[in-house]
Amino acid sequence: MNLNRLILPHCMLLRPKRTLYSKKYGVDLIRYTHAANTVVYSSNKIDDTIRYLSLHDNKYIRYFPGHNKRVTSLSMSPVDDTFISGSLDKTIRLWDLRSPNCQGLMHLQGKPVCSFDPEGLIFAAGVNSEMVKLYDLRSFDKGPFATFKLQYDRTCEWTGLKFSNDGKLILVSTNGGALRLLDAFKGAVMHSFGGYNNSKAVTLEASFTPDSQFIMIGSEDGKVHVWNAESGMKVAVLDGKHTGPVTCLQFNPKFMTFASACSNMAFWLPTIDD
Question: Which segments carry the WD repeats (predicted)?
Answer without folding.
Answer: 64-99, 196-237
